[in-house]
Design goal:
Elements (H helix, E strand, L loop, with lengths): L8 H7 L26 H9 L13 H13 L4 E5 L2 H12 L5 E5 L4 H10 L6 E5 L4 H7 L4 E7 L11 H10 L3 E5 L4 H4 L9 E5 L13 E5 L1 H16 L5 H12 L1 H20 L4 E5 L9 H7 L6 E6 L2 H11 L4 E2 L9 E3 L11 H6 L6 E5 L5 H16 L7
Parallel strand pairs: 2-3, 2-4, 4-5, 5-6, 10-11
Antiparallel strand pairs: 1-7, 6-7, 8-9, 9-12, 11-12
Helix pairs in contact: 1-3, 1-10, 3-10, 4-9, 13-15
Bound molecules: pyridoxal-5'-phosphate (PLP).
The site of pyridoxal-5'-phosphate has 15 residues, from α4 and α5.
Length: 404
């Protein structure tokens, strides 16, 4: 077999990081359900604790099943090291706790996943960390805001939920020139559609709950970056500050999910693009935001840093919040649920659900209107998804007749 970095993405997602000759020929890596690992003698135990000898000793620090996933994921992000966490929030908090101290500053984009927003604005800020939020889609704003105290520049692209893109290379360049780390939440794209580290970012974080797992059956997080950075996150943020450790069974499920990541993402992208085009021309739809549409304001940037538009879009109905609710309630196959990236199509209302941690004023300032709906396009047949959307739009468009 070719060396890891010569293999294509789909092949790496199936093979990297595991040698079946070390596991009695088992096609899939064994699931090591073990909290602790024994030492042959006292000396060896001491050497593992001090880091002088490699090997596992306690599953809050490392575990052989997680190690396979970490190597495989690093190969997909084309970097040195990966790290597993109990959730996406576990990944984000472990990374940020590792590199920030009182007196430091973090600069974030003004649109963030709701719990990330809450952690940074309501959590970190209580510990003497300065939080500055800017519109990262305009790199000049970062240039103006960044200072010697800035340790982290943090954003999502596309942002959850308003789909705003950030020019990753331009932002990472400014951060690097100021010795700040660029941390990108790459959940929406997965490394199949976008590789922030190759564009100059230092660390990627993911909610592996979403596309990476792909089946809506687990909660998990992943991060990747240079070995030196990931070792610090493992030994400081993860081991001592959050303890947000992934369990081995989840790692096994994620390894299974990754095997089909590329074909799932291709299908998510093609179905979403077709639906976005159909929705865009519907008279009841005021706006569709999907990076793959030529009408999308940042379509050029999408084409330059993403392989496809992804599986998520937002839609706004012309009749406001009431009509959006009627539309959502009339859907029959598409499920009303938060989360995204599953085989099942899911729809949610950010203002009352994922982004309710923002105040109404904050939502308005961050481009999250009260009638915005987020649709995660699943793997069902595109015709069935469209039929459901279409019949629900018909119902939502009917005049409301008040009973006298
Ligand atoms: C879901 C999500 C998270 C949080 O991940 P969990 O696995 O739910 O903890 C973070 N960022 C983005 C963009 C997400 O969609």
């Amino acid at each position: 077999m070719k060396s890891t970095n010569e293999l294509s993405f789909a092949t790496r997602a199936i093979h990297v990081g595991y040698d079946d000759s070390e596991a009695k020929g088992a096609l899939n890596p064994p699931v090591y359900m073990s909290s602790t690992f024994t030492f042959q003698n006292t000396n060896e135990g001491g050497a593992r604790f001090s880091g002088k000898s490699k090997g596992h000793f306690y599953s809050r620090i490392s575990n052989p099943t997680l190690e396979v996933l970490e190597k495989r994921f690093a190969a997909l992000e084309e970097t040195e090291a990966g790290l597993c966490f109990a959730s996406g929030m576990g990944a984000i908090t472990s990374v940020l706790w590792t590199f920030l101290s009182a007196g430091d500053e973090i600069i974030t984009d003004d649109t963030l996943y709701g719990c990330t927003f809450a952690f940074i604005h309501h959590g970190l800020s209580r510990f003497g960390i300065k939080v500055t939020s800017i519109d990262m889609s305009d790199p000049k704003q970062l240039k103006a805001a960044i200072s010697d105290n800035t340790k982290i520049v943090y954003f999502e692209s596309p942002a959850n939920p308003n789909m705003k893109l950030v020019d990753i290379a331009a932002i990472a360049k400014i951060a690097k020139a100021n010795n700040a780390l660029t941390v990108v939440d790459n959940t929406y794209c997965t490394p199949y559609l976008q590789q922030p580290l190759n564009l100059g970012a230092d660390i990627v974080v993911h909610s592996a709950t979403k596309f990476l797992s792909g089946h809506g059956d687990l909660i998990a997080g992943l991060a990747a970056g240079r070995e030196e950075l990931m070792t610090r996150v493992r030994l400081e943020g993860l081991k001592d500050m959050t303890g947000a450790v992934m369990d081995p069974l989840t790692a096994h499920q994620l390894l299974r999910g990754l095997k089909t990541l590329s074909i799932r993402m291709d299908r998510h992208c093609s179905t979403a693009l077709e639906l976005a085009k159909l929705l865009e021309t519907h008279p009841l739809i005021a706006k569709v935001s999907y990076p793959g549409l030529t009408s999308f304001a940042q379509n050029d940037l999408a084409n330059s840093q993403m392989r496809g538009g992804g599986g998520v879009m937002t839609i706004e109905l012309s009749g406001g919040f009431g009509q959006a609710t009627r539309f959502m309630d009339a859907l029959q196959m598409i499920k009303r649920a938060v989360s995204l990236g599953d085989a099942d199509s899911l729809i949610q209302h950010p203002a009352s659900m994922t982004h309710s941690a923002y105040t109404e004023k904050e939502r308005a300032a961050h481009g999250i209107s009260e009638s915005l709906l987020r649709l995660s396009v699943g793997l069902e047949d595109v015709r069935d998804i469209w039929n459901d959307l279409h019949q629900a739009l018909q119902i939502a468009g009917q005049p409301i007749i008040c009973a006298a």
